Hints:
By secondary structure, the chain is mostly helical. It contains 6 helices and 3 strands. The chain has a 3-stranded antiparallel beta sheet.
Amino acid sequence: MPSQYVTQVYAYLAELTGATAGTPRVSTVPSVDSATSSAADSPDSDTLPVVGWTVEDFRRLAIEPLGSVQTVVRVLDFLAKQPDTRVSYTSIANHLGMEKKSLQGNLSAFTRAVRKHYKRRNWPMTWVEALTSEPGLKSEFFYTMNASAAERWTRARATQG
């Protein structure tokens, strides 16, 4: 088995054997950390809709100048190349050449940007916490872009110069 899939296989096996505390919850809706949310985000964050990401939404997202959004654009590029595949947080950070804490900050800022500029509460990718083979960790988040979203993302990126 190729080494890049070992973590995902371990996580999948853990789920199948019930080694996790319960059925992992897959989500596209990030929680709002009260310590990092602003007044512009938090009061209405739960009332914002969950809205599918269109090709046009993706085009707009891809050219957003915010550094945090551009980091997530790189994450989406990476995930879109392997649709419906769980990719560990560690693998993403390594691929981007970023420290995990820096990636975490970018994802938090991305959540705020999605809520403020796109008036929705969902990301264009899902995540689930699962067991990992990463040294020093029992579990970590795994991110996935489904095939449909990956296809729309790829179309949006293809039309950009």
